[in-house]
Amino acid sequence: MPDPRTDYLTARRDAIRDAAEGVFVRWGFDGATMQQIADEAGVSAGTIYRYFASKDDLVRAVARACSARYTAQFESSAQTATSPLELLMTAGAHIWEGIGSASARRDAILQLEATLVAVREPTSAALLAESMGEMRRLIEALIRDAQTQGEVDPFIDPTALAWLLMATTNGVQSLALQLGETVDTTAAWRVFEQLLAGIRTQEDGR
Amino acid sequence: MPDPRTDYLTARRDAIRDAAEGVFVRWGFDGATMQQIADEAGVSAGTIYRYFASKDDLVRAVARACSARYTAQFESSAQTATSPLELLMTAGAHIWEGIGSASARRDAILQLEATLVAVREPTSAALLAESMGEMRRLIEALIRDAQTQGEVDPFIDPTALAWLLMATTNGVQSLALQLGETVDTTAAWRVFEQLLAGIRTQEDGR
Amino acid sequence: MPDPRTDYLTARRDAIRDAAEGVFVRWGFDGATMQQIADEAGVSAGTIYRYFASKDDLVRAVARACSARYTAQFESSAQTATSPLELLMTAGAHIWEGIGSASARRDAILQLEATLVAVREPTSAALLAESMGEMRRLIEALIRDAQTQGEVDPFIDPTALAWLLMATTNGVQSLALQLGETVDTTAAWRVFEQLLAGIRTQEDGR
Amino acid sequence: MPDPRTDYLTARRDAIRDAAEGVFVRWGFDGATMQQIADEAGVSAGTIYRYFASKDDLVRAVARACSARYTAQFESSAQTATSPLELLMTAGAHIWEGIGSASARRDAILQLEATLVAVREPTSAALLAESMGEMRRLIEALIRDAQTQGEVDPFIDPTALAWLLMATTNGVQSLALQLGETVDTTAAWRVFEQLLAGIRTQEDGR
DNA sequence: TATGAATGAGTTTTCATTCAT
DNA sequence: TATGAATGAAAACTCATTCAT
To answer: What CATH number corresponds to the domain at position B100?
Structure first.
């Protein structure tokens, strides 16, 4: 079934896309040139056009790959969890820990670039919304589970909470990007954890 | 004291800067051309260079103006508040209310653009960090006041909380940008309010 | 007879022309901007156009002034000479002495610029040729005098010698411009003097 | 060893450089536009930038080529000479003969342009000085040889004489440029020859 | 008469894209 | 299929010149 020729082409395409990603992170979608990408990928400038119709096409491919990675990261984040709430918290802790890392930084930059593209291109906007929506559904499902299991206050709106969690995480990422080491993400996580205690089912008889 | 000539020049400069802002919002810092800005401002392209040394200079001026507006908005947000915590909550509510508005959208876009510039230019990074730091100090001071007055849990790290509030607000802004009407910011605010109850001084006998 | 108004205008014109000269020396005819000239002259850019029809016109005025100064310098160079040959030699020595000076440097630069303009504009070429011709006639006349008085070999072509003297002087000027202190003009003059002995009337019985 | 691709590129580069030379001669370094050069070379303006980093770079390449040609011309000028002095005189005669030619005119113009660039740019000045120095060393060596062989007065400073010969030649070139046919270079050469007789070893019993 | 803000044509330079080899 | 030279359509920026004040 897997045509070796197709495999080769796919691998090539992915290699170029990954090279482009690195260049985009360093120079921005607009600032990057096809030549830089070609150099990084070790191919000639003309070759890129055998795999991507245009620079825009390449940009979209990179944005899509970044989104996919983002969702996958969350999905694999807390395999060992024993309860929905624990899973959420563990995944959150895991992601926040990584916030300073080079790869998180890369993804955050690409995410910002992609957001700005989406602001101007409805097609990209739909793509981005789709990926964000998928993420939101994952989180929301966990919250509903947690509510079903009595771990989380049943009066809380799961959709809104899911958005809020995502927004806060992205916001901290972005802040870290803007301020570097100045912002103490560990301390912020501690405070956030404390806040999240507020959605736990109130066990006291209040 | 006010030289009419200087006044004229300043007004002109501001007008060009404002025109540039509009074009930047629609097309991005990179995508916008000096000609578009000139057209929007109703001047010739050459004239812009009497007021700004370069496109970069214009970008910086716009970014600075946007930051200033942002801080000013917060400062004027809750003049009628009677306590630090109330002030914070009122300001937060006010800002979140505005999140869907066209002007908030404009500012959010410019903020994202500025962030990406900052990622690549240390000078811009310093400028952005300065403006974010100022904002943070304002919020942090309020939190400390609230702690002094017994409104907020004294064990919470005020700096971390300030960053967290900013990150969440920016994150929601950004989310709104990405998803338009899909995300219900009012519901998110209600959940956030609920979370923030967790930092209130615990009056029960904990 | 001298209208004070005309005097004022003439003085103004000269001041602007002199300012332009300085700027042209530093930046070249092409590199200099009208704004620089205006700044140097302490007037506004627009004002220059009341005195000169265009930048080209200003260039021509500067070139003309430079040529005039050049001829005048030669004419006043050796007032105390007692014989034509002595006059020539004294003037030569005087000019060669000045070769390293700032003012000679200025004039040499302007002369080169003017030459290049002349190469491309017949009008300027005629002007330059006229000024060079005048100079040549002055020198040639001296040579003829010297021949009449038996100081110089009568078989030498006075016109050709005049051209040669001018060419050599200009050439050394130009060399000094290209090489700065590297070239020892005093030593070159000594050798040149020695050569010029060759045109003296041969007193030995050859 | 000779890569056909490299050969092609080198030929292309040379062709563009030669086209540029022609345009520079007609319009000057400053007056020439990249578009004119492209048209002359039969390529698009953008193509030039594959071979030269900037207009300045192209200017430098042209200046260098001109200098190299100048030195080479001298070196090949008098292959059949039987003595150093004869070589010098033959080379001089040869160069002076060519002074009116179109190619000498071209080179003279480029030399003037290069001189003016050198006046304002230390880097170019160094380049020009280097090329002039090389020429001077060639001539100086010949003079020393002639002195050793008893052809030239041993009391003459060979360096100063070398500079003087170069200055005079350049000066006559420049004069021819300024005055066209008006100046009789053949007559001037005759006079110069006569002067140069003065450096010959005095055979009479002085 | 002087000013200097405005103009807009013109210049250098970049770069996505094409296409002959 | 890959290459990379060539293209040409912008884009930023400059500056001589004009003209309302």
So the answer is: 1.10.357.10
Domain encompassing residue D141:
62-199
Render pLDDT for B56-94 as a digit per residue (tens, 0 to 9): 999 999 999 999 998 888 877 756 677 888 888 888 888
> Rounded to an integer, what distance in angstroms lies between the CA atom of residue C117 and that of residue C140?
27
Q: Which chains touch C (3 or more CB pairs under 8 A)?
A: D
D84 falls within a domain? yes
Nearest chain B residue to A118 by CA distance is B178
The answer to whether A156 contacts B196, with C-beta atoms less than 8 Å apart, is no
For residue C83, CA distances in Å to B51, C72, C97, C154 come to: 66, 20, 21, 16
Nearest Cβ partner for A164 among B27, B191, B198: B191
Q: Are residues C36 and C101 in the same domain?
A: no
Please state which of the ranges A130-139, C47-56, D49-58 shows the lowest mean pLDDT. Answer: A130-139
Asked if the C-beta of C133 comes within 8 angstroms of chain D's C-beta atoms, the answer is yes
Who has greater pLDDT, B1 or D146?
D146
* Residues A44/A45/A50/A53 CA torsion (nearest 10 deg): 170
Measured to protein CB atoms, the chain E nucleotides within 7 Å are 1-20
Classify residue D206: in a domain, yes or no.
Answer: no
The answer to whether residue C59 sits within a structural domain is no
Indicate the residue of D119, D125, D160 with minimum beta-carbon distance to C187: D160
Report pLDDT for B205: 42
Judged against a pLDDT cut of 60, whether residue C75 lies above it is answered with yes
pLDDT(B184) > 50: yes
Interval A64-116: pLDDT, tens: 999 888 888 777 765 666 788 888 888 888 888 889 899 999 999 999 999 99
Question: Over chain D, what is the mean pLDDT?
Answer: 91
Same domain, D140 and D190: yes
Nearest-by-CA chain B residue for A190:
B160
Secondary structure, 3-state, chain A: CCCHHHHHHHHHHHHHHHHHHHHHHHHHHHHCCHHHHHHHHCCCHHHHHHHCCCHHHHHHHHHHHHHHHHHHHHHCCCCCCCCHHHHHHHHHHHHHHHCCCHHHHHHHHHHHHHHHHHHHCHHHHHHHHHHHHHHHHHHHHHHHHHHHCCCECCCCCHHHHHHHHHHHHHHHHHHHHHHHHHCCHHHHHHHHHHHHHHHECCCCCC
Radius of gyration of chain A (CA): 20
Number of domains in chain A: 2
CA dihedral D85, D90, D92, D95 (to 10 degrees): -160
**Distance between CA C146 and CA C161 in Å, rounded?**
12
Query: Chain D, 77-116: which have a CB under 8 Å from a chain C CB?
Result: 109, 112-113, 115-116
Q: Are residues B30 and B109 in the same domain?
A: no
Q: How confident is the model at residue D202 (pLDDT cuts 50, 70, 90)?
A: low
CB contact under 8 A, C164 and D191: yes
Lookup result for tokens 């214009």: B58
CA distance A152 to A164: 15
C7 and C104 in a common domain: no
Separation CA B146–CA B115 (nearest Å)? 31
**Which token pair is B115?**
């962030």
| Closest nucleotide C1' to the C-alpha of D48 | F6
Does residue C78 surpass a pLDDT of 70? no
Residues of B in contact with A179 (CB under 8 A): 129, 132-133
- Hunting for tokens 């002039």 — which residue is that? D132
